[in-house]
Amino acid sequence: MPINLKTAVVESREQRLGTIIGWDGKASDLSQESAYARGGCEAKCGQKARRICELQGPFTQGSVCSEQMVECQAGHVPDAALIQHSPIGCGAGQVIYNSLFRNGLAMRGLPVQNLHLISSNLSERDMVFGGVAKLEQSIRDAWERHHPKAIFIATSCATGIIGDDVESVAIALEAELGVPVIPLHCEGFKSKHWSTGFDATQHGILRQIVRKNPGKKQEDLVNVISLWGSDVFKPMLGELGLRVNYVVDLATVEDLAQMSEAAATVGFCYTLSSYLASGLEQEFGVPEVKAPMPYGFAGTDAWLREIARVTHREDKAEAYISREHERVKPRLEQLREQLKGLKGYIATGSAYAHGLIGVLRELGVQVDGSLVFHHDPVYDSQDPREDSLGHLIDTYGDVEHFSVGNRQQYQFYALLQRVKPDFIIIRHNGLAPLASKLGIPAIPLGDEHHAVGYQGMINLGESILDVMAHKKYHQDIAAHVRLPYKESWLKQKDPFVLARKTSAGSEK
């Protein structure tokens, strides 16, 4: 099932990959059920999507949606504009994403500016009579205010319900304005996990921005699919004589257009990079680097060696790997001694969590449990070298309590109680206050590149030392707060008991 760019609508992760948001057990059991590097069905049936028995809870306390991921992808292209064709409430995320955008530009040493985001501000009347006129006006407003080099249109649950013909508007305004006007179909109800929003943005970029007939290939250029984190990849790949083209966040429209001219495409997290990297290889012949992600010695070594193989720089890679091993090992030995006896817990996106667990185990930190916010049984390339969960298990061992859940507060208490970690590492901070109320400090990874590569192991180890120095503060909080749950729920040992009851009822 190749990526289909003939339609403007991206296929959801559930349809394409078999993504789930509810599961509980050992990491090795989930890997076996995913049947990825451990004997998949692709040779027999040619299908991408795997079907895993999924726990489905009776309610949800909150999450984010695909449209928000479009905000933080298409919205973070500095010389473009994003129209949120939605009620104004869908634009609430603009505040936090503007902060992330500004901080990201500052970390990269780029001119700091605000987002170019406009809401079409649909009302009840528009829900009855349609919102096409407001969409057209919003696009013209974006053009007059910002003169962007591309205009993205994010759909919403509301526009999906009323059926506005967004594509016809985009085609007409593109001809009028002379810049790409790109519909991104990201209605929140179409996918149960927000990661489909990454794919929606990347789908539109592949269809309408990437240069279709590139001239001469730039043999030293590598696309790095990342978010808005600090610039760690230029120094790493610069050692191999390679230049970095950061995409999608903080990239210009020209940066996105030249992706088809690159020598290769890599990422730091397959959740984020899978769709775009596979699309560039399929449609434009840009090789996707298929290797473990760059976390810990094993992953970073393999990642660099595969980049070197694809770009014909093997000697430079081996020299760099050797130098970095020698540089970081003395400090790592010190950190392992200082962190001895600690237990950590990871609560992040799926592939990212696999990498972080590996780094913790490189540091000698015990990891008995993890919560990943979703699970992709397979990635778009289907190449077993991209099986990040399998790599974790084969390299660093099993994880006894490995849970999949989309950030539910009511489950998190029991998840932490059954492993009792000394600290947690988290990307999306909504769960961190609950951990603090239990006396557990959190390391919020606002810079998602913090743990990448050889230096990343040292970075994360020192962050653990920093947060553990404030352990007493969180213990004091725990001694003076009450959790908003009944005693019967606090005594419940199974975080997924409600989902198991619901699933059992559904089967009946």
Automatic annotation (TrEMBL):
It comes from the Bacteria. One of its GO terms (molecular function) is oxidoreductase activity. It comes from Rhodoblastus sphagnicola. PANTHER family: NITROGENASE IRON-MOLYBDENUM COFACTOR BIOSYNTHESIS PROTEIN NIFE. This is Nitrogenase. Residues 75-467 form the Nitrogenase/oxidoreductase component domain. The lineage of its organism: Bacteria, Pseudomonadati, Pseudomonadota, Alphaproteobacteria, Hyphomicrobiales.
